[in-house]
Design goal:
This protein is mostly beta strands and 124 residues long. The protein contains no helices and eleven strands. The chain is globular.
Length: 124
């Protein structure tokens, strides 16, 4: 049974930083591209960042490029999202997701597995 468990969310002031983690089990982690998505109240789930199975390729949404960094440790079956210079508009539930195909891992509908999410709240 595949499980993705996010952690690291919380309340932070604008300009601050948080590091999210997502621990995976039940799958061959290095075979999967991993993505981070977020969903703000009343809005659709949106792509944030993704990383290929071996970590050689990364991709970011324009809204977070230059502020967020995705990384992974395949020895620990964990993917991370370092979030710096946080803004109130970054407030959302953040989800990690796994996709065996990196080419489709930018799209929520293409992901194979999902975590339950962790809430990030950025105060102004």
């Amino acid at each position: 049974q595949v499980q993705l468990v996010e952690s690291g969310g919380g309340l932070v002031q604008a300009g601050g930083s948080l590091r999210l983690s997502c621990a995976a089990s039940g799958l061959t982690f290095s075979n999967y591209a991993m993505g981070w998505f977020r969903q703000a109240p009343g809005k659709e789930r949106e792509f944030v960042a993704r990383i290929s199975g071996r970590g050689r390729s990364t991709d970011y949404s324009d809204s977070v490029k230059g502020r967020f960094t995705i990384s992974r440790d395949n020895a620990k079956n964990t993917v991370y999202l370092q979030m710096n210079s946080l803004k109130p508009e970054d407030t959302a539930v953040y989800y990690c997701a796994a996709d065996v195909d990196f080419s489709s891992s930018r799209y929520a509908g293409g992901m194979d597995y999902w975590g339950k999410g962790t809430l990030v709240t950025v105060s102004s």
